[in-house]
Amino acid sequence: MRGHPAFGTAKDGQTFFQWQQPGTIREPHLFYAFLVEDPVNAMLRHKAEHYSQELGLRGRLTPTDQMHISLIGLGDGKVEAVVDIARHVGLLIQAKPFDVCFDRLSAFGGGALVLRGSDHSPALQAFWRKLSAVIDDSPLKPFVTNSVEPHVTLLRDRLGVPKMREQFVEPMSWMVRSFALIRSHQGRYKCPAIWRLDGQDDALAGM
After folding, report:
1. Domain boundaries defined on the chain
2. Which GO terms describe its molecular function (predicted)?
3. Rounded distance, CA 57 to CA 134, Å?
């Protein structure tokens, strides 16, 4: 049995005993993603606010500086050795900047409201498949927790979002210029590595 016993005195003077369950402490989550730069990230935040009001949602909006296109998750609580391997994998990916377009508003797991592309952005899909293939041939393969269709999370509302149906919305297009390895913990993001999409394999210093 998990948890621990707790004793106390109620307002009526009676003593009580109860078994308290420990709080869930989530370890840092590690994943690859495309960063969304200014001013597009601010435009996406504005869209999130608009859809939240329009659909009557009350969830947490994604902060402007955390807007990204999710690619591949590597799980929670990874030791530094795994992060180092993920950095080396990122160095193996070569690509040039490309355009993306998102025009579908959809419900996603965990109560996420996301944007997806109806044309599946061929260049984006090609990059995603390339990254997946490199990971499959690396020590990272056992750590992959999800490799889903690339998307942008606008907000999370576990009660309201699952009830909505997918709909077409005004297209949002921009050019992807970099991708990153991100560690997410308690609402904060850190980037152990960022790589520019310039067709070369040089990595920028982490944030």
Report:
1. 27-204
2. 2',3'-cyclic-nucleotide 3'-phosphodiesterase activity; ligase activity; RNA 2',3'-cyclic 3'-phosphodiesterase activity
3. 39
* 75 contacts: CB under 8 Å, gap ≥ 6: 29, 30, 143, 144, 145
Q: Give the tokens for residue 184.
A: 């997410």
- Structural tokens at position 12: 């009526």
pTM: 0.78
Q: How far apart are alpha carbons 150 and 84 in whole angstroms?
A: 24
Q: Around Cβ 64, how many Cβ atoms within 10 Å?
A: 17
Phi, psi values for residue 38, rounded to 5°: -65, 145
What number of CA atoms fall less than 13 Å from residue 125's CA on the CB side? 10
**What residue type is 136 in one-letter code?**
D
Q: Which CATH number fits domain 27-204: 3.40.50.300, 2.80.10.50, 3.40.50.150, 3.90.1140.10?
A: 3.90.1140.10
The residue type of 88 is H
